């Protein structure tokens, strides 16, 4: 963070890091968090000034982050003084749970903290989950109870995702492909041990490809990742799931072979691994991923 600030300001660069006193380098995690908090507050103040006296809409979504904590994103949509529609990311809030009441209280607290009134809400947009759009106890209903003018709009991206999922189930080949892909991911991600094996196989594959000159090196390149499960209600999740499986195709095959040949594993685990492996090395599956099928021939 200090390096980033220094790269944009010579005055800052002259007094930080190697140029700073040993007792005031400002590189501790607590100081870094404080700097981020100050920057975030400045951005929020700028957004508040831009909103002025305009009415506004809120767009909310929640998801679990890498540390398994529930985070809620709050975006404000409004018309500025020039008559232009603006969307501003106002805050991301850690919530203890995703019940409608918890989300509503967190939204109200965030708005109040930025000197915005719930009574000025003129629209609310969420996904179609029951805790969001419930007619009686959903977040939509709780907001409407306080502000009857806060009309609800079902997120268009979410509606499109649901439509695509429903349509894909009517095409046998597409439906079967995603069923098989999801089964493979579930088998490989069934235990921490298999996840560790997947990461080890991935690291070995990356090292080999770098040695062969097939991968570029550099800061941030070739980072370790994990397989992602698709979700019917999460837009682009199917794409991200297939993308992750394609990226770790070789490592996934390696783990499945290891489980299939592990005499200490249960017969059900070995059977699932063998079945998943058969799907992965079929001609259709390999062609879809643009891999040469013979590279993953089941020996």
Automatic annotation (TrEMBL):
Coiled-coil stretches noted in the UniProt entry, renumbered to this chain: none
InterPro entries per UniProt: AtLOH3-like (IPR055298), DUF4371 (IPR025398), RNaseH-like_sf (IPR012337)
DUF4371 domain residues: 2-138
Highest taxon, organism lineage: Eukaryota
PANTHER family for the chain: GENERAL TRANSCRIPTION FACTOR 2-RELATED ZINC FINGER PROTEIN (PTHR11697), ZINC FINGER, MYM DOMAIN CONTAINING 1 (PTHR11697:SF230)
Record-given protein name: DUF4371 domain-containing protein
